[in-house]
Amino acid sequence: MRHDLGLKGALGLLTLAGCPPDDVVIITASDTDTSTSTSGEPTTEDGPPTSSTGEPEPTTTGGPEFDGVIAPTLRIYRPLDGAEIEASRDPLLDHESLTIVASGVTYPAVYAEAERRLEFADVPKAMYSLRAQQPAAPDLPDLPGRLSVTQSVARELESFGGICSGRPDIAFTGDLETTLAASVGEMLPLGPEDQFEFYSYNADALFLVFPNLDEMDATGSPQLDETEIVDWTIPWRPDSGRDAWPLVDTAEGDDFWLGHLVATPLVPAPMGAELQDPWSFAQRYVLGETAKLSLPTMTSGATTAVSGTFKAVAGETVSVDLRASEFMAELQIYDAVLKSVGCFVATVLEPGAEHPITGVAPNLGGINVYGIDAPVDPECVGMDCETMFVTPGDRVLELELGNPYSEDGTETLIVQCSRYVFVDDPDGGAYDYLASDLIVQGRLEDLTQAPIVPKIGLVRDLAVNGTPVAPDEKLDGVGENPTISFTAPKFGAPDFYTITIRTLDDVMGADGPVVRRALGSIRTEFTTVTIPDGFLEPGGQYYIQVTAERSHGLTEAHAKSHDIWLSRAMTGVLTP
């Protein structure tokens, strides 16, 4: 399963488990029960997560006898209006390298085509690390791809199989010259906060696009109040569960949609005491209209003309009882004074009905809110007013959404509240920001039945080489292999932790400067991890994010649940 927390723009853009995934996911040491859950509901026991103390017991599963570690590669694809298709692909074709390292010895992967699995022969029955090196990203060709490390004692890895939305024989591109030229008529007048989203279920592609409202823009972007799109040229950079840029092919039955996410203020004209309430300045988004696009088969490196006509989407309204104060309280544990926070509540269409499957999830509607510097005296007007920082409070929200897409999906609610810490750009440019998050995700029909509160807390006592490093602090001289330690959250029961290493050093990508780039991650059950070689280098500036996660995909107990609970804590800036 892939979880980048790659939430983009005003709404949450959620990409589920990749086929193949960005990050390797395994059955970890506690995941020894391979029986199928029949309830379809997550387990709720609050037992403690695996401790970093003591030697873990190796897991064994059923299946062919093999002296080593295996990873099945069979995938089941669900195309539009077609039967399921089984396919197996050699994961070595999608990685620079895939190896297991145990006790200083490296064990290479071999693809056993007849058995439809990867084999790592002779790996001892003890703790090991699976190292998955991604190829360079097409927009950063001169930099190494992401490195994912997974610690385990499991004898069978559930890393490369699964159920995927769309067809199996998608063509991909890494060519930066691949573009769309979109012309779409009968559009609602464009508002200043509106966004657009290209979506194809069958090609497993999703691309959120912001109009350029500069009248001198040369791309053909629509401008304020315009009611059509005319030859808008857009570089094709979609998200996908396939870990590549898919090319849409209508000759193969691919659908292709352009959604118009229409933005309006939650409170049209705040007055009086409303000026002290962050919700008075919140933005509401709804999928107001979509266009079914016509186009020839997309070709790598070429511009494809797409056209269509917008049609209104029938909307509905649901009530969401968000206890934002409880999210804010947990976000404060590393800093008593919150300086910048925000929440979004978004509905997406997750592929798969009876259980989640791999694929992208188009936005249906949502609401954004941020903390504000509010006047102490609501009657005061002007720059000289005394202000106070106010975080979003509890609120029952009337959430609007529109869903014109397939019925073979699940309307899913995502609630994410984040805390931002702004730091100086080490290259002297614009500010970078770090973030910690609390996320609750589940079926819309379930989460609207009760107040929404955080389900899993931030890890506690986060330290680097034994030294706490608050998000707004800096620690020099940590070395290239620092030890990251923490204790379990005070509530919630994580299935695993992901330690993500990010750099603040800017690089130039195809679309301009790239900041806060993730170098890779380490996935583990343990609460003490030493950063291995391949991540930190002398002279670099980094920070570490520790995600505690309870979700589907790691155990059969959770495999049929749409529920995902996440928390993400962060260190301050580190230098080796």
TrEMBL record:
Region Disordered, residue ranges: 31-68
Protein origin, superkingdom: Bacteria
Bias kind Low complexity: ranges: 31-64
Protein name, entry field: SbsA Ig-like domain-containing protein
Organism: Nannocystis radixulma
